[in-house]
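@channel sequence for tomorrow's demo:
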Amino acid sequence: MGRIADNYRAIRLRPLMFAFAIAFASGQAAFADCEVLERNFDKKSEQTFALSPTTEATLLQMEGDDLVYISEAGKTVFSGDFGEVEWNLSRDTGLPQVLAVDVNDDGIRDLFVGVGQGMVSNYYQMLISQPNGQWKQGIEVSNPEFSCGEPGFTGWYRSGPRGTDEYWAIGEDGIPYVQISRTVVDDHIFQRVDYDAQGKVIARAIVPYTKDIRTETPPVTAKAVEGASVYSPDDMQTEISKLAADTPLILLEVDDTYSLMLVEFGPDKKRGWVVIEDIAYE
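structure tokens (generated this afternoon):
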């Protein structure tokens, strides 16, 4: 799991507030860069900061609620409520409560406001700038991570023993969406799922670990343990074959319980489900 843990790291870019002040003073061009503005509430219940030379965000904490107001040239154009925030200030995670970064490249920083904190995951709700002064609220991401010069951004979360990476692309409407998710299956192999902008699954595949989640990889191959049962791809309770030791397998996808692997085998490329413990990875 060491290589997996290496992929789960905190937010990489931590610019100094002084650098942000210089960027703001230099005008609109400064907001085309990819620096991330980070803030913590600490003991302050109200903070105002610039999202562009003409756009400001004001965040208020009142009785556990996070309220946000966006103003353009001094006029309020959006107001929203992030609800009751569950951010444990007593635990030093090293992660900020508020992030501002231009993810859709429109010259206005978008807001990521912390709304919840677990043992390993920190949840942020996005507020994304739209054309004509509109803002889109309500999309949630866990542990967002931004890379200078790269489109979109990544996130990750863990549920029980399994960790999942996500790549968020920017849709034609400027709204981020999960384009790829990659969940650890067993040791060094992962299930990758590709989605369209509406969240429909396009493809599933078993892939090896790669640093960049977007990297295309060849199919993962393995061998069967002697006597491994193969179950029908249409009925996981029906056994359709027994495999000899070292029968070559191509791994296709995993079931919802992460206990069975859909494999392809034999010269006629039959398919079926095999218990993960009956598969030896190459």
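heads up for whoever presents: The chain is about 5% helix and 50% strand.
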